[in-house]
Specification:
Rossmann fold; Aminopeptidase; single chain; 2 domains; alpha/beta; four-stranded parallel beta sheet; 9 helices; globular
Length: about 280
């Protein structure tokens, strides 16, 4: 179980500051938390952008069990979004990290925080925001299990106190409530677009917990990416979950399944998972 959490945000990031400011009201006295052996969290506000590993104090980060990066999200469509994803890169590393390397993450934690974010958005009537997973992308590259949770996609949303509160409340809730669930099956995802509509449904409505997601736009798939995604999932991975229609044509699908078969990785189509 994770006990010591670190919430990281950049001082340059309006959304990150919004979230951490809202979250500060939920922080318990760390001394009392440690005496009671309760999960607790600390803040780490970084002077520069948090997607670049060089801007982070890794010695500080390594003192914690789990890291949550609170951040802004940008998109060309400028949609109102609250999003969650694991950091890392498959094909390129233009936005921090290293190509072909991803961070450790927890499929179970991602599933539970995604469920909680959806329920809190409904509870606090945050109707205009789309709640979504994103595929694994951008830096930094660290050795501790971690996720990004983000407000998108313009300055208006980054400064939206209600959006910041919903994410802060979600972080607080999941830190207090997270439990390892032996009944969940664990999968990595392959295929589909950046915002993962099929994986969203599975994460929210099925028994499957999804960790790293390799999107269609980085294909053709490499064996090393599959190994990296599996190795960096904290739980034992049961299978690879394929967004079948989001893998391109029949030749591209066969390339993916051939690699998985070669690596002895069991696979299923998203359509085969009960939702």
């Amino acid at each position: 179980m994770y006990k010591k959490y670190l919430i990281i945000a950049s001082k340059l990031d309006k959304a990150g500051i919004n979230i951490t400011t809202q979250l500060s009201q939920f922080r318990q006295n760390p001394v009392l938390s440690s005496i009671a052996d309760n999960p607790n969290f600390d803040f780490y506000l970084v002077e520069d952008e948090i997607i670049y590993t060089k801007n982070l104090n890794l010695e500080k980060i390594n003192q914690y069990d789990f890291v949550i990066f609170a951040s802004r999200h940008k998109s060309e469509k400028k949609e109102k979004t609250l999003s969650i994803h694991a950091p890392g890169n498959f094909r390129t590393s233009q936005l921090g990290g290293e190509a072909g390397k991803v961070c450790p993450t927890s499929a179970l934690f991602q599933k539970q925080i995604f469920e909680k974010l959806n329920s809190n958005a409904k509870l606090y009537n945050l109707k205009k925001y789309k709640i979504t997973l994103e595929c694994t992308h951008h830096g930094p590259l660290i050795d501790k299990p971690c996720i990004f949770i983000e407000i998108g996609s313009t300055e208006n949303e980054w400064a939206d106190r209600r959006a910041g509160f919903v994410i802060a409340k979600t972080i607080k809730d999941i830190i207090n409530e997270f439990k390892k669930n032996p009944y969940n099956e664990v999968a990595i995802g392959i295929g589909g677009p950046h915002y993962c509509p099929n994986f969203n449904k599975i994460q929210l409505n099925s028994n499957v917990a999804v960790s790293h997601i390799i999107p269609q736009y980085v294909l053709p798939l490499k064996e090393e990416w599959v190994k990296e995604a599996i190795d960096k999932t904290k739980e034992e991975v049961d299978f690879a979950l394929l967004d079948w229609k989001g893998l391109g044509n029949s030749k591209q699908r066969k390339e993916v399944t051939d690699i998985l078969d070669k690596l002895y990785v069991r696979w299923k189509k998203t359509s085969e998972v009960g939702k």
